[in-house]
Amino acid sequence: MNTPSALPEFQRYQYAFTAHLRDPETQPRPDGVEARRMKVYTGLLYHNVEGFLLACFPVLRRVLGARRWAKLVRSFFATHRSRTPYFRQIPDEFIQYLQSEWDAPENYPPFTLALAHYEWIELVLSVSNRRAERTADPAGDLLDGVPLLNPVLANLRYDWPVQRIAPRRKVRPAETHLLVFRDAADRVQFVEINAFTARLVALLESGTLGGRAALETLAAESRHPDPALILRAGAALLEDLRARGAIFGTVA
Predict the structure, then answer these.
(1) Angle between helix 90-100 and 58-79 (nearest 10)
(2) Which tens digits make up the pLDDT trace of 34-52?
(3) Residue 64 and residue 105 in contact, taking contact as beta carbons nearer than 8 Å
(4) Is the pLDDT of residue 139 over 70?
(5) Residue 183 has what DSSP assignment?
(6) Partner of 139 at 20 to 30 A CA spacing, among 45, 68, 88, 124?
(7) 3-class DSSP state for residue 154?
(8) Are residues 158 and 248 in the same domain?
(9) Residue 248, Cβ neighbours under 10 Å: how many?
(10) Which residues, 6+ apart, have CB-to-CB distance to 75 below 8 Å?
């Protein structure tokens, strides 16, 4: 770490102190601090950060194993500059690090980021304070009305079957669509969907299309020979999404 030489001596000392706390293996311990005490400080800070990550990414930890997990957390702790003072948002910063800064070594699974994101999204939705901006008619006609999506919802696509990844289980790349939302009981639900459903939800996210118009768009995009079949199947799908809690009803 390059510390600006123009800084006052006490600030240069602070830079050196915190640099060693972040990365004790490569950053020298500043003069005047007993090694035993410094080791206590570095251990406390590292394990505090790791504890917040373990709570959010338990499957990733088990898949990577202790050594690769510790190396990844240490790299995050040493190099990432967080933009939030809140402990609860440490997993958010970890995802940003994996997406933008981490150069994955060859011995890490190619699905590491996808699996981490899949685990992280549950935390994001569980603490979300988003509310529907419009009033819903729970019994509204989903074809002729404008379906109102649950505001705490994520329509996700992965290149890996993330929901099936586990230690010692081999998985192959596969396009995977998941609909994730928080239900009326404040439980985060994960529903595996197909590309048709994912596209339908994406069309409804604008909040301007009626259910019938969205399904007609899908029929046109797919050039299906029987648009009426798309309409019937889509109507049943919309009702299923309402029953699950992914759709609140129609815009009142």
Answers:
(1) 80
(2) 778 778 877 788 888 999 9
(3) no
(4) yes
(5) -
(6) 124
(7) strand
(8) yes
(9) 21
(10) 102
Q: Which residue has the tokens 């029929």?
A: 219
Q: Which residues 6+ apart lie within 8 Å of 90 measured at CB? A: 49, 52, 53, 82
CA distance 64 to 50: 14
Output the pTM of the full model: 0.87
Q: Do 109 and 167 fall into the same domain?
A: no
Q: CA–CA distance from 11 to each of 6, 22, 158 (Å)?
A: 10, 16, 45
82 pLDDT above the threshold of 70? yes
Side by side, the strands of the sheet bearing 136-137 are 136-137, 247-251, 147-149
Quote the tokens at residue 218. 């899908």
CA separation for the pair 46, 23 (Å, rounded):
10
Residue 121 lies in a domain: yes
Instruction: Tell how far CA 181 is from the center of its chain.
Output: 12
Find the distance separating the first CA and the last CA of the chain, reported in whole Å. Answer: 58
Contact between 146 and 250 under an 8 Å Cβ cutoff? The reply is: yes
Q: Per-residue pLDDT for 60 more than 60?
A: yes
Give SS3 for 177: strand
Please say which residue of 127, 152, 184 terminates a domain: 127
Domain range for 161 is 132-252
**What type of residue is 172?**
R
